[in-house]
Amino acid sequence: MMDVVNESKERINTSRETRQGEKFPLLAAADKEKLVQRYHPDYRAEAYRSLRLGPNQGERTVHELADLLEGESPLVRERSTLSPDRSVDLLIIGGGGAGAAAALAAQPLGVKILLATKLRFGDSNTVMAEGGMQVAIDPDDSPVQHFADTLRGGQMKNDKVLLKTLVEEGPAAAKWLMDLGVLFDREDDGNLSLRSGGGSSRPRLLRCKDYTGLELMRVLKDAVLNEQVEILEFSPAVELLSDESGACAGAVLRNLDTNAYIVVSARTVILATGGIGRLHIQGFPTSNHFGATADGLPLAYRLGARLTLQDTFQYHPTGAIFPEPMAGILVTEGIRSVGGQLVNASGGRFVNELETRDAVAAAVIRECQEGRGVTTPSGRVGVWLDMPMVDRINGPGTLEKRFPNMIRQISRYQIDIRRDPVLVYPTLHYQNGGIWIEVNGESAIKNLFVAGEASGGIHGRNRLMGNSLLDIIVYGRRAGRSAAERAKSIANAGLTLGHLERFEAERKKGGGEAKVISPMLFPDYVRKEEKVKTR
Amino acid sequence: MEDGEGNGTMAAPLAEVAVEISGQRYVVPEAITIIQALWAAGRRTLHGVGCLGGVCGACPVSYRLPNELQAKTGLACQTLVQEGMSVLTLPSDPSKGARYVLPSHLPEKKDLFASYPETRRCTSCNACTLVCPQGIEVMGGVRAALNGDFAACAEKFTACVMCGLCAMVCDVKILPHRVGLWSRRMHGAFVPKPPQLVTRLAEIRDGRFQRDWEHVLQDSAEGANSPAM
Q1: A195 is catalytic
Q2: Inter-chain contact A285–B2, Cβ cutoff 8 Å?
Q3: What does the alpha-carbon distance between residue B53 and residue A125 come to, in Å, rounded to a whole number?
Q4: pLDDT for A175-195, tens place per residue?
Q5: Which residues of B150-169 are buried (b: 16+ CB within 10 A; e: fewer)?
Q6: For an interface test with B, which of A142, A179, A209, A524 has the most B Cβ atoms less than 10 Å from its Cβ?
Q7: What is chain A's Cα-based Rg?
Q8: Residues 6+ apart with CB under 8 A from B73
Q9: For the whole model, what pTM was predicted?
Q10: What is the ipTM for the molecules in this complex?
């Protein structure tokens, strides 16, 4: 079996010369739609079901998320007192990029903030973002062009008001980050070095080598700590709290080390709980961090906040699959934006590598389903991502200069991406939809704001590369500002679980049994056998 | 193709290796990371696990291989187990950064010493460089900062994941990773803004794109597939 992989790899290495310079046309709109609908995992009917209760009752989502949304709050069986342990103006739940940006925007307004997070402050999907941040600053580019590209990429399903604000505030967001000390790569003339991503008609990606998210998160975290915002780590929210009118009034956190509840009264709450990768939707591996379990979605849903586009997910086309322990690890789209090619088992290309992610992922799945993939010893099937082509096109040393993180990560598995291609298959990467918000970040429930991946609408049914880092900054700051302003105009309210009683009453009226307790908090990878092997 | 087990466990049986983790011996599949080995050994992880992608710095470990005297360091999510390996998991960076505001001038050495005075004590022992899981030339970065060359220091710390291993081994209690971040922010905040960004901000302020917006919003409202741009 190993020989099959090696033989195929040799074919890639020998066909490189003929593939260099070969043009592969972009798909016509109708063909792309057909490809996506036939092969993209979002269109597998058996993976979906209708929600039986809650604000989106009757609408579809995947089983894994439906179970959590219809799940039972831990407080149904294990009641906590509702007398507040802490009383603050603004509670931010989530310590990734969106939560940090919200804190920095709220702090100058003079509100008392508590930022609670499940792991450590900064452990998030933000820190892992490799590709960059889209901002339309090239003289040949414009926010309008950025809008049009993103709308096309999102299958025209984006919320246009949210999207217009995103792209218009992009340049100001970039300046704000630079004022905080974020270092983006520059050209010799002092201008920012810009690159294209899939679906972008102009070079628009700001980046810090392939460490863009790390650079942002390092700086944001340092800035928040310097502002002396109070941080509570290892304390995820397990339920939100409502006042008599049904508005959000705080949250119940759980101290993960003692299992004790911490009841927080807050005038406003920002959910910045991030993504869903660790749900392993449809069995896919994931590129996401250990805590990406969609916690904010069931919390908001039980409180009555409507979701939007909750049926669509992004499967990043190039997750490594071999050797086995590398499964899910992302190979940045940046590689394809500078000439990296996707090649099937027989050594041929099969898609333009800069189609949007939904189309590239669908094309990879098509190749594998139709027998043109390469099978690994552990039974996974994938196609080759030819990275040595990058140095061949752009000159030796390009990979080393531009993708030091990629080289380092993959070298741990004895693969040198400057010499050899890597086997890839789509990996669960991003939740395209989420909790519905208006342009100031407020959800359908008063005083509950949402920012970042937990929110939905901005990206339509398929996010373009580099738009999520922009999203967390623009909408993190907007949510921070509006939640802080609101907090200054209202008082802390009486705490109730009235929303939970209504949710459970709805369940009794035909919502079916809860299958799980939610939020999930962590995936369970621990081996269950009683007896652990020793030698 | 999708195996239903995600990234946690193996799809097919592999050869096995014997390892010792924090004083207990386990036999686990070979060629998995130390974090995956903890799971395979039935251990729950909460502290000391984060992004699983080698960039959050939550999972530093020290390990020793058979017949090697010198212990090595690494990140548990990025280090593969080997036969006879003995692993000690280490705490995530416990150090606290100095409190500072970005000054309104280009950084000088005295600004660094106001935030991190102990940096002066560097004896050039190079322990920080040897221990860095990212292969950063840590001591070189600290020496550059000591010379007031914050741009050079910033460049050297580009790949820093703030795991804090360098600070743990520093004999004179320097916090090299924090000196690196300080230098990056100070340097970054005062590099002149890119001309193309300055121009674009002015254009947006002056309403330069108003007409284009009207067109594109109208086109997309009519459900046109490809707004003519």
Answers
A1: no
A2: yes
A3: 10
A4: 999 999 999 999 999 999 999
A5: bbbbbbbbbbbbbbbbbbbb
A6: A142
A7: 23
A8: B60, B61, B62, B63, B90, B131, B133, B165
A9: 0.95
A10: 0.93
